[in-house]
Design brief:
mainly alpha, Arc Repressor Mutant, subunit A, 2 domains, two-stranded antiparallel ribbon, 7 helices, 2 strands, elongated
Length: 188
């Protein structure tokens, strides 16, 4: 339902102004998390649509190129912030936002954190393996100062692995929804 069908011109302008403020804020906040501001604006625009939208409708409303719109939509879908839906009689792809901001938040951070944790654990484990080989050489050659230095680094890397294991468990609580047992969603 279009605004013009249910409100006066003045009311429509006021509603558009307050919506635009929220859309701008969403865009700015998304930028803080590594998603471009324009993609954040896409999400914000879609958030206020009461029915699925096509890329062409979005492009017309936002003035973005088809390529930018398509890339932005793919980003939002990868982050599980937007879903493709089926529409009877429509040949074009239709998109809707994930209305549950709690789910959006947990999906977004789970995806980003898990990727980061996997890369970091791999790097630390590889370095730890090389460090242990170097430490063995230092022990065999009797270089106690090098052994001491390497043991300090080894402890630091083992602490890093413990942290990443903890972070993995935290991510698991996000993905399972268990986090909401500890930090409940707001009611009402």
């Amino acid at each position: 339902m279009e605004l013009s069908e249910v409100v006066t011109e003045e009311q429509a302008q006021r509603i558009q102004k307050l919506r635009q403020r929220v859309i701008e804020t969403i865009g700015s906040n998304m930028d803080l998390y590594g998603v471009t501001m324009s993609v954040g604006h896409m999400y914000g625009y879609m958030y206020f649509q009461n029915e699925p939208v096509t890329l062409d409708e979005m492009r017309g409303a936002m003035g973005m190129s088809k390529t930018s719109m398509s890339t932005g939509m793919r980003t939002l879908m990868d982050l599980k912030m937007v879903h493709k839906v089926w529409g009877k009689g429509s040949r074009k792809d239709l998109y809707v936002v994930e209305p549950d901001w709690y789910q959006t938040f947990t999906d977004y951070f789970s995806i980003r954190w898990r990727k980061s944790v996997e890369m970091n654990i791999h790097a630390v484990k590889k370095s730890l393996s090389e460090l242990k080989a170097l430490k063995l050489e230092a022990v065999e050659s009797g270089d106690s100062k090098l052994v001491e230095l390497l043991e300090q680094d080894e402890r630091k890397m083992e602490e890093a692995i413990k942290y990443y294991k903890w972070l993995t468990r935290l991510i698991d609580t996000f993905e399972s929804g268990e986090i909401f047992e500890y930090v409940p969603k707001e009611e009402g």
